[in-house]
Amino acid sequence: MPRLSGFGMIDLQDFDFLTGAPAFELIRKLLQGKRQVSLIPELDPRSASSNRLSKSLSRLAFRDQLIQEETGEQSLYLAWLFVEGKLINGQLMRAPLILKPVGLERIDSQWKLNSSESWRWNPAFLLAWRHATKQRLPDDFSDEQLENLPADPTEFRITLNQIVQSNFSIQVQSNLFEDRIQNFPNSQIQVDQNQYQEGKLTLKPYAVLGPFAQKGSFLFSDYEELNAEGQDMSLEDLFSAHFEAPENRPFPREDAMFPIFPLDASQENVFLKVRQSKSMVVEGPPGTGKSQLISNLVSDFIARGKKVLVVSQKRAALDVVFERMAKVGFGQFLALVHDFQGDRNLLFEKIKKQIESIEAYQEQNRGIDAIHLEREISRNSRSIARLSDKLEDFRQALFDTSIVGMPIKAMYLNADLEKPAQKSRSLLKLNQEQAKTFEQDFKIYARYQERFEASFWNERKSFAQVQAADFPRISQAIWEVEGFRKQLLELDSSGLAKKQVSTELQIQNQLQKFHRAYNSLQQLSSEKLDSHLILEKEQVKKLRKQQLFLIEEKKQLAQLKFELKADPQAYQVELEVLLSKSQSFFGKLWANLNHSKYPLVFELLKANELKLGSGILGDIQEELQIRIQLQEEKQAIPQSLAIPFSEDAEKDIHRLNLALDWINAWQELGDWHSLLDPTNDLFRQLEIWMEVLEKGSTSWTFWKTWLSESQIQLLLEQGLSSCIPENELNWNAVYTELVAFDRFLLGWDNQSLGLELWQEFPEESTADQVHIFWNGWYLAWISELERRFPVLAEAGSLKMESELEELRKSILEKRSLSQHIALLRLREQMCQHLEYNRLGNRVTYRELFHQVSKKRQRWAIRKLVQELDDEVFKLLPCWLASPETVSALFPLKNQFDLVIFDEASQCPVELGLPAMLRGKQVVIAGDGKQLRPSDFYQVKWESEEEGLEFEAESLLELAGNFFESARLKGHYRSADPALIHFSNTHFYEGQLETLPDYATIQSGKTPFFWEKVEGIWENQVNQVEADAVLTRVRQIQKDSLGDSIGIVTGNYFQMDLIREKLWKEGLRQAGIKVRNIENVQGDEFDQVILSLGYAPNREGKLVTNFGLLSKSGAENRLNVAISRARKQLHLISSINPEDFRPGQLQNPGLSLLRSYLIWVQKQSKQRAVPAPEVETEKFEIDWSLKKKLMESDPTYSSHIPSAVMDLLRVDSSGDQVAILTDDQRFFNSPTAKAALAYHPILLEEKGWKWKMVWSREGSMKA
Q1: What is the DSSP string of 577-618?
Q2: Which member of 289, 921, 955, 1174 has the lowest number of beta carbons within 10 Å of its beta carbon?
């Protein structure tokens, strides 16, 4: 330091005789071990110098308080004996040799200097010395040497000089041993550069009171070590070597996770990925539970025997985690170290207490039913895992579009069991796109059908293969049919003939009949038979009887053996004589002798080579009887005039067959009889019809090429003009449409389904038919998908309701049990593998207990950890510290299983990197929309080099380029979402999920208070606004007793002013903190008073530059300032939104400030927060149950206060009920468990009634 001005330090010589004694007396009292030394009065009306010094002390005390609140570091020291000169490497040096931790306090209007710690070597000097000389100090060189120095000031300096001369090349002058302090020089670097010789150092008796940061010195040692280990290693390689996780590592089992606090879905997502050994970057907007997530990671890891390091620049962040875990019993297992030297005694006391508690822990564990705890954890974990998997399967199936192209959820909303639906298995052959295509195709089909269904062309031959060149042939066929019809009408005006030849088969059949009749008539003519007479009814009967007799006669005669040459009667006469003679020998002899008298019989016997005998004659007699009977029957049959019986039976049969064939042929003509006259040249008549029919039959082959049977029939029956009313000139246009229609049909894969739909619902309009198709399609696929995934059918059932209740209950029970089992395991780990000597004395922890119990020559924490790390980490598996403290406490090695950074957006890369590398896995948590690293307390490392590691502003930004990122979404700080709405909208794209207390919503009160004051900006403060803040503090304390109050100002000076006013008014209480926008991150308060202080000057002009709110990062600062309130924000302003000049609004920070002032002004009058917009990416509006509910029931409202619900509805008692559906909220949730368990649990915790409504319930329970 070339001088003290600008460094916020006080030359101790300034106290010379202001205390009534030389300034050295202050040193003397401290050397003698005085714990408290009086300095000067807070106010001395007799001494302006004393009052100026008092103000400096006040600022120094306040700065020390801020630093301790901000970082936890003991930064206020009394520095004595400065090394002055130039190191051997040319570095200028004016640095304290030894330091004594002190504190400033005002007691009874008197400034006091407190000190209970020993003198320490200045580590910054030691580092610079080692770096310049390349020499290491002896191992026994430590602060313990200073602890043992004499209390007498002279002896102290003599002994100190001996140590210095033994270890350093520093000249000591005689004035060092004089009891006086030398004024600190007011020099310049250039002067010093010329004044001192290289390598020459002198010890000067300067003494300074001020902040001397100590922890940062150890960072340089870390970087020296890193540089030596991997000079050529890139940051990518470095991170990969340290943090690369095994691939495809499974999610941990539910019963192997021990988060002790609630987890929302976004927190659980990070938790699970970290448990998969992934290093993560966690973006945690204000109030999203970063500390809760960190606490859960800590509890889970240390309960499994892992070591965890929590790191943050902000003391508040570490305190929040520690206090949160301490409240549930984990405090004794956590080491919170803000200052590596100042907190040593507290840490050692905690280690000592832990060792002393071993027996108590063992007894405590024996008293706990550990088996019962394990069993209950296992039971609840199984339920959670089983039901979570089932609900995830349900959600997957509900929104799955891979099978059909549409989720079944949308089908539930569109299907209606009470409306008509097409039923066809073919519906399942269509996915959504195919169904949409079918709809379009069906509409095309329907338009064609509407045009052609009632026309001549409905039952046509397909035109799909018809070309334009074929159109004339089609017309020709039509005209030929029409010509054939007309020809028929000319021959038969009655139209009878048309009916007989309306089909090709008919005309062929009729033609065959005419041919048969004609041929039959020709044969009759050849026999000269009368065809007309034959057709007479009586003649037909006689002819048929004649034919039957002759056929029967022929049949019987054919069975006889004897062929007669004469009439049977002549034979009968001879036979009667011979039969009687044949009975004796003599009769036979007589007959043979007289055979000439019986020529017919004997000629018959001869012809058949038979001899006369009674048996033979008997056979002849039988046949004669048959022949005689046939003759008699024949004579009795009435004979036709057309064909009477002749002597030639064969001829008669032939003629009769011809006649009867003619009769049959004529009768086959049937209805044609009316068109034929048998008496008038029947041959010609038949020939005419045969010619007509022959022509028709021949043409039919051509006609059926282009026309269907039914079309030809229709033309024949009704005629061309009736069938085709269009002008022949338009026929080609009709053909063209038919070609298009039939080609469409040819390419329509689902034509049969379309025909089914058309034919099954012929009375419905096309639009209704389409609805019927879709309803059928929905219902068919619903049935099929529920068959494949039975869990879908459980939506809204008592079973699912019961399982959801079981899941919520298991989650809550496991949360409660996790705390107990985690503590049990921590105690078990601490008490495991204890070793005892043969005398029964415990050896484990013995040396550690000795070291932490010593009163003198106590080890530094770093040495304790290095020497006894296993035992230390068993007792304290989790450590919480700042990055610099980490470097001071732990060697640079992978000592921790998990390193967690909080508020990493404020951590410079160079500070955070060494702490990261002390872990095997890292979680970097912060918010890029909040404060960036500040140089308020340290100098930023500047570099012109390029690359992520040099250009990244913060550790959060750097890590975001190398590790997987996730964002926390649930906001829990603000009781009213209105408090975070502005930040949510302007910084987080509306993604924060907030849920107000039900009572807060019901009250309808605004969480904002706006007060405009007529303040004046002067000397960087606003007195009027500061007074208004005090008034507001009193009002808050009156209205909200017990609420914490945070006052946020725009700059350091306004903060200091308000702090002083609070002090003087007696309002300086633990529940009130004053911050500025640069150091308020990490804090949260019930009530926040935002008093930026900026105002017009005395001339009424707003000329202020708005300080940090107009600089780079101003938007982030404002975001932090406006997001600290839990219950209410009070904005006290000396400017109205309209006071900003157009030029000022070009600045993004000021433009955003103006927008916020407008927001608070409006909200302070009437709370009006728009409903959160639910993300709809990949979620289609047709899937929305909410939309359907609101359309069907006006009591549903979409004006919801939170994205963890879908709708609001007022129940019968007048209470608002949160409606949860399976819409976007369920779709977008990271897990089904989050939507169906975490959200209901949160609603109940916030006092909300809720009800679950499923898409399936509307359509499937109709």
Answers
A1: HHHHHTTSHHHHHHHHHTGGG-HHHHHHHHHTT----HHHHH
A2: 1174
Number of neighbouring beta carbons within 10 Å of residue 165: 12
Which pair of tokens denotes residue 1169?
């927060």
Q: Residue 662: helix, strand or coil by DSSP?
A: helix
Handedness of CA 998, 999, 1002, 1004 (dihedral sign): negative
Query: Which residue in the block uniquely carries the two structure tokens 């099978």?
Result: 403
Within 10 Å of residue 771's Cβ, how many Cβ atoms?
18
Task: For strands 36-41 and 110-114, give the pairing.
Answer: antiparallel
State residue 1218 phi and psi, 5-degree precision: -75, 125
Q: How many CB atoms lie within 10 A of CB 6?
A: 8
722 torsion bin: left (phi>0), alpha (psi -120 to 50), beta (else): alpha
Q: How is residue 905 written in tokens? A: 């957006």
* Rounded CA Rg of the chain: 58
Do 58 and 100 meet the contact criterion of CB atoms below 8 Å apart? no
Q: What is the pLDDT of residue 735?
A: 95
Backbone CA torsion sign across 360, 366, 369, 373: positive
- Could you tell me if 1208 and 984 are in contact, meaning their C-beta atoms sit under 8 angstroms apart? no
Three-class secondary structure of residue 277 per DSSP: coil
Token duo for residue 726: 């269009």
Q: In whole angstroms, what is the distance from residue 1089 CA to residue 1029 CA?
A: 7
Q: Which two tokens stand for residue 286?
A: 């204000």
Nearest to 117 by CA among 74, 65, 175: 74
CA distance 398 to 1188: 17
| Interval 664-687 mean pLDDT | 88
Contact 339, 103 (CB under 8 A): no
761: its two tokens: 């619902």
CA dihedral 1250, 1251, 1253, 1257 (to 10 degrees): 180
Judge contact between 645 and 639, C-beta under 8 A: yes
Residue 944's pLDDT is what?
52
| pLDDT (0 to 100) of residue 597 | 87
What is the end-to-end Cα distance of the chain in Å, rounded? 85
Taking Cα atoms as reference points, which of 867, 869, 872, 920 lies closest to residue 897?
A: 920
Closest to 1164 measured CA to CA, from 1009, 1004, 983: 1009
Give how far the C-alpha of residue 312 lies from the chain's centroid of Cα atoms, to the nearest Å. Answer: 33
Closest CA to 888 of 509, 361, 513, 342: 342
Write the CA distances from 1129 to 1009, 1078, 1118, 1161, integer angstroms.
6, 18, 14, 12
Phi, psi of 1123 (to 5 degrees): -115, 25
Which residues, at least 6 apart from 463, have a Cβ–Cβ distance to it below 8 Å? Answer: 735, 738, 739, 741, 742, 743
Per DSSP, helices labelled H in 789-931 are: 798-831, 846-853, 861-867, 869-875, 883-889, 909-916
For residue 434, what is the enclosing H or E element?
Answer: helix 432-452
Average pLDDT score over residue span 41-69 = 87
Separation between Cα atoms, residue 816 and residue 494, nearest integer Å: 102
* Residue 946 clears pLDDT 70, i.e. is over it: no
For residue 170, what pLDDT is reported? 92
Pairing mode of beta strands 1008-1012, 1125-1133? parallel
The answer for residues whose C-beta is within 8 angstroms of residue 386's C-beta and 6 or more apart is none
8 A C-beta contact, residue 220 and residue 89 = no
514 touches 675 (CB < 8 A): no
Half-sphere exposure for 484 (CA within 13 Å, toward CB): 32
Average pLDDT over residues 1089-1093: 93
Angle among Cα 86, 91, 96 to the nearest 5 degrees reads 70
H or E element in which residue 399 lies: helix 370-399
pLDDT tens-digit profile of 825-873? 999 999 988 999 888 888 899 999 999 998 877 888 999 999 999 999 9
Measured CA to CA, the distance from residue 878 to residue 868 in angstroms comes to: 15
Tokens of 77: 């020291």
pTM of the complete model beyond 0.85: no
